[in-house]
Specification:
This protein is α+β, with helices and mostly antiparallel strands and 79 residues long. The chain is built from one helix and three strands. The longest helix is centred in the C-terminal third of the chain and has 14 residues. It is elongated, with a radius of gyration of 17 Å.
């Protein structure tokens, strides 16, 4: 059993620029014209000296498969 547990947390603003298409519901038309609220990724990381556990909460409607694949590749490379 580890004697030390390290924990870190972060919040990163991932708000896209104005003028991009928006998701959310089928009736939405056009592109964004302003930013009402910022979009963030909130993470917390736990490390016990041997293993890492990362929890990420993303202000997304969804994550495309190519981003999931790229993230998995990076995680496997770093493991």
């Amino acid at each position: 059993m580890p004697e030390t547990l390290q924990v870190g947390a972060s919040v990163i603003d991932i708000t896209p620029g104005v003028g991009l298409p928006m998701g959310g519901y089928g009736a939405r038309r056009g592109v964004s014209t302003a930013v009402h609220d910022p979009l963030n990724v909130r993470t917390i990381v736990f490390h016990d000296g041997q293993s890492h556990v990362v929890i990420a909460i993303c202000d997304f409607v969804g994550v495309p498969p190519d981003i999931v694949a790229a993230a998995r590749e990076l995680i496997e490379k770093e493991s």
